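TICKET: design request
STATUS: open
ATTACHED STRUCTURE:
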């Protein structure tokens, strides 16, 4: 009955760093809940594409990564 799934075990052992938690909290405070979900999945070692539709994921990346880069300049 014990099933060893290597991908599952690797994800359990991955810890989210303080800086990453701060990014997630900033996204939540800004009301970007979908982006916060993407960050949680990425930081936990999962591929967001497995859980979020491709078009939605690409839109979130464009909105948040491109917007984030333009705000830093």
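STATUS: resolved
RESOLUTION: sequence designed for all positions
ATTACHED SEQUENCE:
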């Amino acid at each position: 009955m014990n099933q060893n799934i290597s991908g599952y075990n690797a994800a359990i052992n991955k810890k989210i760093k303080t800086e990453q938690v701060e990014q997630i909290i900033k996204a939540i405070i800004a009301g970007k809940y979908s982006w916060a979900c993407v960050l949680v999945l990425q930081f936990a070692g999962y591929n967001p594409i497995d859980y979020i539709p491709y078009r939605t994921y690409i839109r979130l990346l464009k909105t948040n990564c491109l917007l984030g880069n333009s705000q830093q300049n």
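CLOSING REMARK: Residues 7 and 23 are 25 Å apart (CA to CA). Helices lie at 6-13, 18-29, 33-43, 54-72.
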